[in-house]
């Protein structure tokens, strides 16, 4: 057995307009506080939670957020060191840092390498300033190339960028420019996600007021097919609906999620999955720290997955992957449903597997609903 770790860093300098992640700015946590003050004892809390996790060997560690690259390498390194001592790491353990391009320097990236990181994922989102402005992103597009070059220079083995498509006001030409700019970088991996307008965000409020229009579904479909085409033409194959990589640079951590393997989420709001039991922590960093330091459980809620839930989730997650679904895991009615989609060009029916075609990936959620009804 193995156990991957997700480490949540719930701090950002500024909240982006589209973001509904469990993140907090210093001013949201404490009036006039600096990031150093509000996160001072956070690593101690994470290490306290680690004490109750299973002691299985660790194949992946992923620091996400928030903005993990705001935290000094020596502090994140304490978590890596403790997992190494306590659980042990596989020989090829993947240790990922999410980073804002504006928050790194050559010296800072080198310090992350020195504490054990070997993979970095930069939040690029777009190469077009007007798109970044709508998303309320603060970074300078030119800093992405600089950050990638520095990361490669200090020795990161795998470098990824995250992109978002479907932003109001973004044209197909804008998106093409962004993807081509990303592919021109010295990277190994691209994640491209359709913009989802989440209730309660600044972006949702702007749309509700009529300041900007909702993303266009047909345009977003065209953008998805375009990023898939451009990535394939540049040596990056798709391995999951929203992810493309050069051979050998697939994100092992995310694959552990999609294959329903065991992982433990450290930090406020973090989710865990251990042997068909799912649970998640209290969301607020202050409540999280208070409970841990007083010896209380930080688990907010949990659920034991039923056999039906496990089967449905295996279909939902498996169909997203390049290797698709095994026909051995499907009943005759499900295979018949997929045969209909195959006749319409949405899936490819092999002897023992079912794979989504590019247009089939556009309606993956619809196909899953029919298979799990």
TrEMBL record:
Database matches in Pfam families: Radical_SAM (PF04055)
Claim: Iron is one of the keywords in the record: yes
Cellular compartments per GO CC: cytoplasm
Alphabetized Gene3D superfamilies for the sequence: Aldolase class I (3.20.20.70)
GO MF term list: 4 iron, 4 sulfur cluster binding; coproporphyrinogen oxidase activity; metal ion binding
SMART domains linked to this entry: Elp3 (SM00729)
GO biological process: porphyrin-containing compound biosynthetic process
Keywords: Chaperone, Heme, Iron, Iron-sulfur, Metal-binding, S-adenosyl-L-methionine
Residue stretches making up the Radical SAM core domain: 1-237
Matching InterPro entries: Aldolase_TIM, Coproporphyrinogen-III_oxidase, Elp3/MiaA/NifB-like_rSAM, HemW-like, rSAM, rSAM_sf
UniProt KW Ligase keyword: no
Family: Belongs to the anaerobic coproporphyrinogen-III oxidase family. HemW subfamily.
Descriptive protein name: Unannotated protein
Organism the protein comes from: freshwater metagenome
Taxonomic placement: unclassified sequences, metagenomes, ecological metagenomes
């Amino acid at each position: 057995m193995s156990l991957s770790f997700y480490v949540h860093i719930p701090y950002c300098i500024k909240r982006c307009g589209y973001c509904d992640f469990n993140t907090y700015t210093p001013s949201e946590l404490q009036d006039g506080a600096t990031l150093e003050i509000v996160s001072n004892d956070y690593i101690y809390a994470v290490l306290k939670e680690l004490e109750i996790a299973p002691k299985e060997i660790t194949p992946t560690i992923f620091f996400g957020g928030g903005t993990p690259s705001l935290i000094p390498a020596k502090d994140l390194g304490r978590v890596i060191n403790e997992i190494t001592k306590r659980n042990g790491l596989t020989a090829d353990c993947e240790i990922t840092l999410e980073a804002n391009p504006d928050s790194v320097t050559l010296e800072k990236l080198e310090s992350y390498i020195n504490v054990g990181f070997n993979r970095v994922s930069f939040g690029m989102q777009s190469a077009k300033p007007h798109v970044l402005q709508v998303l309320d992103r603060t970074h300078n597009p030119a800093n992405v190339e600089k950050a990638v070059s520095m990361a490669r220079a200090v020795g990161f083995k795998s470098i990824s960028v995250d992109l978002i498509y479907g932003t109001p006001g973004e044209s197909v030409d804008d998106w093409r420019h962004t993807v081509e700019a990303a592919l021109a970088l010295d990277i190994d991996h691209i994640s491209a996600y359709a913009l989802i307008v989440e209730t309660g965000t600044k972006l949702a409020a702007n749309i509700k007021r009529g300041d900007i229009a909702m993303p266009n579904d047909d345009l977003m479909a065209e953008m998805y097919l375009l990023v898939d085409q451009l990535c394939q033409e540049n040596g990056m194959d798709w391995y999951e609906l929203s992810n493309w990589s050069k051979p050998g640079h697939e994100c092992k951590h995310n694959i552990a999620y999609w294959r329903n393997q065991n992982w433990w989420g450290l930090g406020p709001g973090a989710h865990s999955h251990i042997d068909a039991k799912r649970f998640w922590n209290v969301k607020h960093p202050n409540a999280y720290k208070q409970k841990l330091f007083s010896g209380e459980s930080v688990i907010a809620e949990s659920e034991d997955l039923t056999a039906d839930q496990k089967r449905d989730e295996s279909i939902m997650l498996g169909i997203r992957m390049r290797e698709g679904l095994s026909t051995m895991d499907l009943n005759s009615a499900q295979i018949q449903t997929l045969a209909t989609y195959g006749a319409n060009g949405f899936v490819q029916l092999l002897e023992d597997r079912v794979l989504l075609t590019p247009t089939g990936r556009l309606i993956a959620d619809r196909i899953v609903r029919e298979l799990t009804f």
